[in-house]
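Pasting as-is:
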Amino acid sequence: MAATGVPQFRRPAVGGVLDGAAPALLPESADDRGPGRVPSGGGPCRRPRAETDADAVLVATFDTVTVALRHGLEAVDILRLRRACGAVLQSRNDATVSFLVPAGTSATWHLPGSSCTAGAQLLPATDPRWVLPPAGADRSARPTDPWVLRSVLCEAACTLTAGGLGPS
C-alpha cells in the first residue's frame, strides 16, 4: 500500500491481538506469570504515580487520543450526532479531552493537534470527569473507531476555524 499520509490502522487479527503489536500490548504467556518471574513483555502502559488516580485502572486494551478541550468537545458533538462516539474522558485540569480507541492505534496515529498514547487509565463509570461514560449493563467502555475519529477531528478543526475560534 502506498504512503498517503493517512494513518494505516490495522484491524485486530484473530485472537484480538494486532499483528506486529508492541510487546507491551501483547498478553503475557503462562511462562511469564510464574512466581518470582518478571514478565518479559513489559506489561501494560505505566504512568508515573503522581498522575495515577487511586481508583483508576490501567488497561492495555485501549489507547487514548488526546486533544485540546474546545476541539475535543466539538468532535464529541459531531460523533454523537453520527452515533459513533465511544467513551470520552476530560482531564483533571479541564484542558484536554481523551477518546478511547482500540489498542494499537498509537503506532499509526499521526494527526497534528492531537496525541495518541498506548494504554488507557479507566476511571469508575461514576467519575464526574467522563464526558461520555462507559455505558450498558456491565458499564464497559466502548472505543471510538480511529478512522472516524480522525475524520471528525479534521471536520471539528474546520468548523472551529470557520467560526473564528481555531481548533485549540
